[in-house]
Amino acid sequence: MINVLTENLDDFAAGLWVTTRLVAGSFVVALVLGTLVAALRVADTRTLRRLGTVYVEIFRNVPLLVLLFIAFPGVLRGGVEISPWTAGIIALGVYTSAYVAEVLRSGVAAVSAGQLEAGLSLGLTRLAVLRRIVLPQAFRTVIGPLGSITIAMVKNSAIVGASIVALPDILKEARIVNSNTFQTTEAFFWAAVCYLLITVTVTVVFRGLETRYAIRR
Amino acid sequence: MSYLLDPDNWEWVFTGNNARFLLEAFATNVQIALIAMVLALALGLVLALMAISTFTPVRLAGKGWVDVFRNIPLILLILYLALSLPESLRGFWVDNAPGFLPEALRSQFVLAGIGGLVLYNSAVLAEVFRAGILSLDSGQREAAAALGLSYRQQMRLVVLPQGLRRMVPATVSQLITLNKDTTLVSIIAIQEVVRSGRVLTQTAGNPFAGGGVDAPILQVMIFIGMLFVIVNFALSRLSRRLEVREGRRTAVRRPPVAEPAAA
Question: Cα A170 to the chain's mean position, in Å?
């Protein structure tokens, strides 16, 4: 059992590194886009709110695999030179951003209206109130759900590696180890352990953030 | 952008039997989702009851199962099952699959595909069930016990009817996730809609099979994506309506069971 890991440690380590970078990149994309879309969804213009809703409904309901085929072979066919990394990170990030936006919106709703009113009465613009007063508090109430979304994203990153050949992530490396050694169960078991390594780290980090920054409501 | 909006490319999606080919394959996805959902619900209920059992070995087995299958990437599970599915089982399914199933669901890796979807979703749904049951006020069960009902009667007559109703919205939202996840079985050569889309765009680039033009894979994939958005959006609306109706029917302000974070 253990020898499949020790003899192919390079492969698993390489896969772990690829998955980690993929997840880190997508996390940034998801957080930035998710925050923007959440801001749209709580805007005071109806058109902007609609726009946010349409974004969330589209990207929450479309399979990630389809997004990946749009982002890589699809965009390439359209004549845009996109690298596999950019395509993978954008697809996973955009997909996850819809969930981030939903969670953040519920966080914004949990911040009392008095905060907004107080900010406005101080003469801040609505955008400034959102950026300086409401969103920082909203983030602090949704640290837990953001952690769950990040863990789901780690698991979804396996779909990216499975559809874009040029991204040798953990799952891809496990398939390579499997075809080299014919030890299917062992290869996939250690791949699952690698994923667990990342998800446990994410859990610990978010739990730390939660104890430090969370606001209980 | 001009490529994306070029009407010729969109027309291609709807020429000949292309769109029908994709729609029929999409029906396979929906069927896979429904079959897997029914099985996962049954298994999930058993697992949830195991996880709240007072008998320690049973409880640990239920919780262990849930923790294992919830934390493995689904696609890893499906691939593993496909690679380790014995020859005999594959042949058995090809020979004995019920005839009413579409051809795509009678191919050799279907057991692995549906098996993976069921294992994963049973674990997720077990958590939803468990939360639904535990969200019920403990007085309900105590009252049932005081009336002299046995454990099974308490569950069947008092706890489950209330707890299960409360988890309907979360279950529907999991069905949406499951519907999206059916595309993953394309990786193990089951002819569902994403695989059909790729087949379509590959043969069309071939001058012998589909004419010499490069197939617009971008438009085909956007078309497939829209099919999912339409069906899943309808499902999410249904879920919201059920939630509202439930709130009105019981006139009790209780939060429904939280949706699983299925990003």
Answer: 17
